[in-house]
Amino acid sequence: MNNNIYVIYGKNAKSMTKQLLEYADVKRYIPAGSKIAIKPNLVVAKPYTSGATTNPHIVEGIIEYLKENGYDQIGILEGSWLGDSTKRAFEVCGYNDIARRYGIKLVDTKDDKPVKVKVGGYDINICSKVYEYDFLINVPLLKGHCQTQLTCALKNLKGLIPDSEKRRFHTLGLHKPIAYLNKAIKTHLVVVDSIMPDPDFEEGGNPVEKDFIALGFDPVLIDSFAAEHLGYNPYDIEYIRLAEKLGIGKAGEYNLIEINPESKPKEFSKRSSIVSRYAKYIEEKDACSVCYANLISALMRLDEQGFLKRLNKKLYIGQGYKGKSMDGIGIGSCTKDFKVCKYGCPPKSNEIVEFLKQNL
Question: DUF362 domain: which residues (predicted)?
């Protein structure tokens, strides 16, 4: 299985997406004449700037790439969460406009007739329309979740089951049915939106500008990457472990390919209340965006686990600390001359968590 994960940085989501798809040569994986389904995350009727929903410009980039390469049978499939209207989400999130401009069909899976699929002893009701397509492009948002810690590629397929099944998934504890759902529906390609996600809550409200998009072909590996980015050990997310056991994909080591790394943002947005809550622990000088974002995610995890209150030293991060040594903890290779330093360019968020636990 392809273990490459491609990452591109910047702010122009549509052009970034097209460049990412070209670089990964995605067209060679899609059979000619395929009917293609695109599955964004439109869990609520909120614009992407809330940190809750997939950036529509990413979906535009996917559609333009597909059409330029001869694929014209394209549909966007989604079913918002319980109590929310998918049709309203399509309108509020900009997808009605996309459908009109590109001649794309919007499918509200809440209107769809479900079909019962048996997987490993599980009977799962799945919206039948997804089986009318040959190739599924999963376009999740990399964000936090109050129950499963993470929502990305694997959990995003919940939008392809009816509301009654969503309720049942919750009674079953979410993790096991999510894993089996991914056995019943094959994801062929994952394009991850991490332009402006909420790293704490699936409904948005505290977006953080991370300014990158990731691409991969293995949803388990992508979720492993996503978990690390939010400061978790991938195997601590139960549905990742279960999905790997079911043979859906493989977590663990991946080959990270950064496209145009010179375009990596050099400034990290301070707009989020989450950032301001944890910034008091940090002394930052010229830190790259991704390095600072990984540190913020690590501090969030430490706080959840009750360790943050034990942190009594400042954390130093950024290119401004090259060649210097301070009485504190350095984060990133720019602080390699500190007596206590977590190396990495950038260091992974989950590795920062474990490092800080050992040095509190």
Answer: 36-227
Residue 160 amino acid letter: L
CB 184 within 8 A of CB 212: no
Is residue 328 within 8 A of residue 315, CB to CB? The reply is yes
8 and 143 part of one domain: yes
| CATH code at position 92 | 3.40.50.11440
Q: CA torsion sign, 230 to 234 to 240 to 242?
A: negative
pLDDT score of 171: 81
Task: Round the average pLDDT of the chain to a whole number and report it.
Answer: 91
Q: Are residues 258 and 284 in the same domain?
A: no
Q: How far apart are CA 297 and CA 278, in angstroms?
A: 9
The C-alpha atoms of residue 9 and residue 115 are separated, in whole angstroms, by: 40
Which contiguous run of DSSP H or E holds residue 302?
A: helix 289-304
Mean pLDDT in residue range 251-261: 91
Residue 346 carries which side chain, given as an amino acid letter?
P
Distance from C-alpha of 160 to C-alpha of 43, rounded to nearest angstrom? 12
Secondary structure (DSSP) of 196-218: S--SS-TT-SS-----EEEEES-
Sorting pLDDT into bands at 50, 70 and 90, what band is 270?
Answer: very low
Note the Cα 91 to chain centre separation in Å: 23
> Domain containing 209: what range?
4-263
